[in-house]
Amino acid sequence: MNQKTAIKGRGAQRNVHNRFFELSHEMRDDFLEFCRKEGEISDKNKTLYLEVFPKTIINKVESPDIGMMYSMNSYQGCEHGCIYCYARNSHEYWGYSAGLDFERRIMVKKDAPKLLEAKLKKKSWKTHPIVMSGNTDCYQPAEQQFKITRQCLEVFLKYRHPVGIITKNALILRDLDILKALAKDNLISVSISITSLSESTRRILEPRTTTIKKRLETVKVLSDNGIPVNVMIAPIIPSINSHEILPLAKMISEHGASSIAHTIVRLNGAIGEIFKDWIYKTMPDRAEKVLHQIESCHGGNLNDSRYGTRMRGEGKIAEQINNLVKLARLKYFKNKAIPKLNLDLHEQYKVGQLKLF
After folding, report:
1. Which domains are seen in the chain, by residue range?
2. I want to staple 214 with a disulfide (CB 3.0 to 4.6 A). Which of 52, 161, 210, 316 is the partner?
């Protein structure tokens, strides 16, 4: 990585223009030179937590090619800083950039547990699994301080409501007691994201995430405690982690996961500009190759928004990747599967305790 230009501990290396704003902000060379001469810091690179007050917390997922009907996000923005994250674009709706702002301006929804409880108690609510982290990671670093995810899990347990979790943070093991209680009634499934077996790759792709070793250990601990684990090998990026599919699947299976899922990277919205800036700074020797191979998976573009093809891609490289994943499933996950979550208990616990009549 070019240490002169790289911002330590961050994925995005700059803020990009918010498409909803007429004005833009840029860090000028003359300002940077002034700061150098004056001995001042031009950018303190600190994370700010900003409390917000939404009226609702459950989101209905309209996309037909995403395997969930409802999601909830206790945080907006994510300090993990994954350079490829599709959720970066959502930060523009809050008035921020999809670049560095996404990693350093984290919105915190402290009322999430109360909003969730109110929703689950409604007579009109019909039981469907709700996925935590449909947009940003519910176990990102902010969770250590605010513990909103744990409070929400307590609500799910109280009302015996099925819940799914997507994360790449070993912090989930802090809540093993609640997860085990949910698992007794088949009310929980967990997806752990693991994109590489290489720590050097992990550090530049996902700078503030849990190490690969810790994530694999997390898969094992959860599985050993009867909690179904799916692993997301996502996204697969040609010439960065595409060569790791089979060894990664083998390691995941050996640690007890019941299934794997994958996507091929697509750089939608502002992410294309952010990713290109990042890869020229971090992997200048293969930047052109990677970008061209991503384009070859999406009809000559860095992004494809068509449902059904956007996450699987098209063309020879995409076909090779998809076939490798199929082979990995046959080789390492034959006769394994994630059980369907229990939808039958919640109605009996609608008021927070078992109905006797």
Report:
1. 32-335 (3.20.20.70)
2. 210
Residue 235 parent element (H or E): strand 229-236
Q: Could you report the per-residue pLDDT of 178-209, keeping only the tens digit for each? A: 999 999 999 999 999 999 999 999 999 999 99
Query: In a 3-state reduction of DSSP, which class is residue 57?
Result: coil
Pair 58, 135: CB distance under 8 Å: no
Pairwise CA distance, residues 122 & 310, whole Å: 36
Peptide bond into 162 cis (omega under 30): no
Rounded to two decimals, what is the model's pTM?
0.90
* Alpha-helical runs (H) found in the chain: 29-38, 100-104, 112-121, 142-146, 148-158, 176-184, 199-205, 212-224, 245-254, 271-282, 287-296, 316-332
Rounded Cα gap, residues 162 and 72, in angstroms: 13
* Sequence-distant (≥ 6) Cβ neighbours of residue 131 within 8 angstroms: 68, 70, 71, 72, 163, 164, 165, 166
